[in-house]
Amino acid sequence: MSTATSKVMRVALRGDSILTHPRFNKGTGFSTAERKAFGLTGRLPFCVNTLEEQCVRAYDQLLVREEPIRKNSFLQSLKDQNWVLYYGLLTRHLKELIPIIYTPTQADAIANYSHLFRRSEGMYLTFPNEETMERDFLEQTKGRDIQLFVVSDAEAILGIGDQGVGGIGIATAKSAIYTLLAGIDPSKAVSVTLDVGTDNQGLLNDPLYVGWPNKRIRGAAYDRFVDKFVQLVRKHHPHSLLHFEDFGIGNAKRLLDLYHDKHAVFNDDIQGTGAVTLAALTSAVGVTKSKLSDQRIVVYGAGTAGLGITRQLRDGIMAIDRLSEADANKKFFLLDRFGLIKQSLGSSKIRPDVREFVRPDAEWADASANERGEVGLLEVVKKVKPTVLVGCSTQAGAFTEEVVKEMAKHTERPIIFPLSNPSRLVEVHPSDANDWTGGKALLATGSPFPPCKQPNGKEYVIAECNNALIYPGLGYGAMITQASIMTDTMIIAGARRLASLSPALKDPDNALLPDFSEAKHVNFEVAVAVAEQAITEGSAGVEWRKEDIREKIRENMWIPEYAKFVYDERGEK
Ligand SMILES: NC(=O)c1ccc[n+]([C@@H]2O[C@H](COP(=O)([O-])OP(=O)(O)OC[C@H]3O[C@@H](n4cnc5c(N)ncnc54)[C@H](O)[C@@H]3O)[C@@H](O)[C@H]2O)c1
Ligand SMILES: O=C(O)C[C@H](O)C(=O)O
Ligand SMILES: [Mg+2]
User: Fold this and answer.
1) pLDDT at 114 over 90
2) Is 269 annotated among the ligand-binding residues?
3) Whose CA, among 154, 236, 259, 471, lies 20 to 30 Å from 485?
4) In the chain, where are the structural domains located?
5) What is the pTM of this model?
């Protein structure tokens, strides 16, 4: 595997220009010869440090910052100064630091973006500047080999809703995770916020809000603005992957369907979440020695993630257990704000994209409906007797003790996935679900939680069912093979490879998914599975032999190590 230390890079910057460029700055890592060649001898203290020594220093600086949001700000500054050191530090402390740069802490960083702002990062495409979008786009991308765009309009950030221009923070976090867990070269990725205004009145009232202080643009004007961006990506970077993140419920699926067969696009909340949840459930049914098609699945929160999960589990049941779509759909019971999504709710309460999962009215549903004709979660659990309960509702504590114990009456090993992020929005704390079911529940959450104590004294590790365990590999597998589109079969191939790595397959008392400390290895395996599928089905734009895929992926991965620099008067290479 070629690593950066064996690489030589020709760089045209010198002096302050190289010291202040995060892609090229090495700080005390510049060798004596490089300092002479790049005019740095008088700009740096005498000692030359290794990256390892720099990571020790940076980690000490991190530890003195006690609050997670302060650690987050420190790491943001480190990334603004020196990419290799930033990713080198994260790689050495993966499990400890992912919750700092990603959920849950990044939610606070995004919500306070205008007050934490010190330096811009990424591409800000703002609605009033629509006319100059192509010029603004090319300012940052012209002449660059861009493999990945991560874009958000920030209407549904995690579970904290509309965050306006702060949405750049989810795009940069997701992009950093691509680099950290799949080896995307950060110089080949662009994070984008589509600032189309915000309906968050708190932001609009904030005199320090740095985004466009206007109500959110919707309808034809919104579609035109988004399309202008997508067409620029397609025109200038036809082989790139376009990753949509945290779009609102009225746009996420609609935009995915609009562009799905025109470019390699991916909606993480829909497809990434669906894939990781399919892997977690595949692992859980392995523990219970049952099949996906044996399950009765209640999904609480029929939004972008909830529908993405439902569709992916449905497609998984069809692909793995060979059920028809109609029969597979019958395994699902979806609830939203108005309770069980059933025929008699009427079209005003049923969004068009939910229609395929509307339950025909069962007698029990009408018998247990309230005065508004709505059937709540406890009633559904009593009547449906679900084996699986998935939460993506943003409603903290929605899975009450009564709901969980009712579920446990009807199934030996309740499978409970409270997936809402950040942590404070979790539908049930895993330790409660564990206690209320006498240690029988099979659990996975959207953000990290500590292990639970089982009645037999053993620790039960709570799997983090977060799309970061799979989306980097899904995306990398597609982009490295220059797949023209991200197909459903590529996604299922990635989900099945992830499921095959589940610790619970070896020890049923172990976690349902690999630990995040293994996330680089896991996403590498997912990327291999996706690349193999893309090549097998003809979606790939490269002609690799299957036996070469692993090595090809490995040799293209960006490793956070210093290359040897040679000064180039003619221009940066
Ligand atoms: N674990 C993961 O990898 C992952 C991935 C994506 C989203 N999520 C989390 O899932 C949650 C939802 O994300 P989303 O993008 O789908 O948002 P969304 O706004 O599209 O969907 C939320 C859904 O919950 C419904 N809801 C709200 N209040 C409810 C209530 N009282 N009862 C029932 N349903 C209710 C809403 O009507 C909506 O349909 C967020 O917390 C997000 O962070 C987790
Ligand atoms: O961002 C995450 O942590 C996962 C997911 O994309 C979400 O929106 O919650
Ligand atoms: Mg998301």
Assistant:
1) yes
2) yes
3) 154
4) 271-468
5) 0.95
